[in-house]
Amino acid sequence: MYVPALCLAAADGLRKGPAEHTGALPAAEIVELDFAGASTVGALLRDGVEWRLGHAVHLSRPTPDWPDGRHVVTADPGPVRGHASRTRHQGAGATVTWAG
User: Fold this and answer.
1) For residues 32 and 8, is the Cβ–Cβ distance under 8 A?
2) What is the sign, positive or negative, of the torsion defined by CA atoms of 64, 29, 94, 53?
3) Residue pair 9/20 in contact by the 8 Å Cβ criterion
4) What's the pTM?
């Protein structure tokens, strides 16, 4: 499970616990924000996308390593609609997380 670091920070900022819980999961890989990601998030910010979603949008887009992008799982696909290449709606109570 790939977890965008900015999304994890945003979740932990809303309530205490998601970072510790996610970090303890053996299958969780926290994905750092690299140069390409920072550039993408900056462009998304200029387009009005919230910073907390930008990293997930970046990871959802195709790259040489991930030609189809990675799935974004979210309770509300509205904020990333039109920006993320792959989204999956999981209903109320779901959190932004990653499934490779």
Assistant:
1) no
2) negative
3) no
4) 0.73
Task: Looking at 1-100, list the stretches that DSSP marks H as alpha helix, in order from N- to C-terminal side.
Answer: 5-14, 18-24, 35-46, 51-60
Residues 6+ apart with CB under 8 A from 78: none
Q: Say what the pLDDT of residue 98 is.
A: 39
Cα gap 5→31, rounded to integer Å: 6
CA distance 97 to 9: 12
Quote the pLDDT of residue 79: 63
**How many angstroms separate the CA atoms of 18 and 28, rounded?**
12
- The residue among 87 and 34 whose pLDDT is bigger is 34
The pairing of strands 29-31 and 2-4 is: parallel
Angle between helices 51-60 and 5-14 (to 10 degrees): 150
